[in-house]
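Predicting holo structure, NDP bound.
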Amino acid sequence: MTKFKGVRIVKEPAYAASYSEFDETELMDGDVTVRVSHSTVNYKDGLAITGKSPVVRRFPMIPGVDFAGVVEASSNADFKPGDAVVLNGWGLGETHLGAYAQKARVKGAWLVPLPEKFTPAQAMAIGTAGYTAQLAVLALEKHGLTPERGPVLVTGAAGGVGSVAVTLLAKLGWHVIASTGRPEEADFLKNLGAAEVIDRAELSGPGRPLGKERWAAAVDSVGSHTLANVLAQTKYEGAVAACGLAQGMDLPTTVAPFILRGVALLGIDSVMQPRDKRLIAWNRLARDLDVEKLAALSTTIGYDQVIETAGKILEGKVRGRIVVEIP
Ligand code: NDP
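Done. Tokens:
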């Protein structure tokens, strides 16, 4: 097929996303062409489709930062037709035509082989959010933190990054405290392995520079006052892996947690991670992520539900992870 289905974002006459058709000649440069079978909806995809933040920097754009699929054509020595592959980030859906389409043409250097343990749908149930949760866990471990040091807090726990982080950390033996604004999801979070569930309102308002030491480590996908309070309540020489901004991009903190308690703030970026670190993260996901728990935290939608789901994720109405089936 030279024509294929894809979501198209245009900027003129007004920013809009629609279900559309593309021709292969519109695909951008790359040495591997992939028949996409599955994608997912991350928070960033919500921002791109709605235009709420300037995520998209090329028009027209096909949004979607993650895909799983099968190589259709390749001039890259590492990939041949029929290979099952996964792509997370690298500017897909931002600067390079992305995942919500039947075809993608990308640089082979951006692809990783689909891990044997996962189906393409499971790889997308993980997606950027899950792989970012894994990067956060690796960062805490690199800092020398272990479950013996005390509890770990996960904020935005019922969201994508949060739900995978809860699952991974519980499997590794951590006492996981899940912070959520959705008390009705307490059983969901406990089923994933959370030992305690707290109300995110405890952390979301302006706080003091230091508070009672409550957790040795944290994975924060929320930012703003929440991250400031998380730092202020981290135990001596603990660390916080910061990966998101669901509450806000600001960080109204003081240096107190850093200079009085030796707390470390570990930044997590998934988009431009070098390939060797991606492979490490995917290998750890294959080792540690329970596929039954993955099924419990993910929901499948059709390609024609992507645009409405983008609005829902920004409203905090999506639980766990979403898998998109591309026809
Ligand atoms: P989700 O929308 O699935 O999860 C975000 C969660 O944050 C929500 O489910 C909600 O959890 C909580 N939340 C939402 N709004 C607020 C608010 N105003 N105050 C406090 N908590 C709030 O998104 P993702 O998991 O896909 O992404 C989470 C964040 O991580 C995003 O900011 C995203 O941009 C970022 N991210 C960063 C990456 C990186 O490379 N650094 C990669 C992937 C994601 P609950 O209902 O439980 O309270």
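The first strand starts at residue 3 and ends at 10.
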